[in-house]
Amino acid sequence: MIVLVDLLVMLLDVTYHILRSTLHAVMPPRLKYIEGELVLITGSGGVLGRLFALEFAKCGAELVLWDCNSATNEQTAKLVREMGVKAHAYTVDLTNRDAIYQTADRVRSEVGRDVTVLVNNAGVVAGRRLLECPDTLLERTLLINCHALFWMTKAFLPQMKAKNHGHFVTVASTLGLFSTACVEDYCASKFAAVGFHESLSHELRTEDELEGVKTTLVCPYLVDTGMFAGCKIRNELENFLPALEPNYCIQQAMNAILTDQPLVCIPRMMYLPFLSRALLPWDANVAAYRFMGADRCMYSFIKTMEKRVAIGQANAA
After folding, report:
1. 186 included as an active-site residue
2. How far is the C-alpha of 111 from the C-alpha of 100, rounded, in Å?
3. pTM summary value
4. Which one of 22, 32, 193, 308 is most buried, by most CB atoms within 10 A?
5. From 90, 186, 221, 289, the catalytic residue
6. Which residues pair with 64 in a beta bridge?
């Protein structure tokens, strides 16, 4: 009898959340107030990280900026400060667990308060075919895109739990929901990031007293930042599914964060291949991939990366 009651309650909950999500799609909820929050962004020297920083600055949040490139990170900090917002820039190697923990301690000591919004945005890709890729590059992708999530969480989650206040954002990728060829390191790391984020979200929800700690998983399609320069699907379909403009991507991500949305795929049509992967036979998905040119879309990207490496080696010589 208890099982039947629980089943009925579950069905009512499912129905409620479906109707609630449908209503939010038509009438978006109010954006939450984050002025004065302390926001830490990794990869803040890059295109998306910088745009995230500027958007949070517009909301009046104080920024902590982490990147391995001191020069570009300082440029981001300068832009934020010009908006009249405090920014603290730190040079951090996210492949180094000890560096993450030590810098986290520095932030608490030097800034004087705890991080309340953590945006795990940093990401890399090797850009080589698997059998031709040095092991160090493969390891670097996994360390930054996946392992760093564990160390960042252990560094900053305890303080959020203690205050029952915080927000975890994981910038993954649609290639963490479905895959393509020639980017095994990236797909593996982003699938891992999605799995990590979802497991963490479930863990937080099992602790009823932690309703104040929110999570958002961001899964964008290809973004025009140069990271995947040369990536190309079928010519006839590119007008219908072009690379995302970085500002558009960040606007959509910010809207999801400020409305406590658990998951956002950008653009919305990216939910379709995610569903087809789960519902259709493997060969059916392969047929669709081939039609779109998605099965070979990274070939030109790999060639572009090979040319960059060759030019770099020639310049070094």
Report:
1. yes
2. 16
3. 0.92
4. 193
5. 186
6. 40, 88
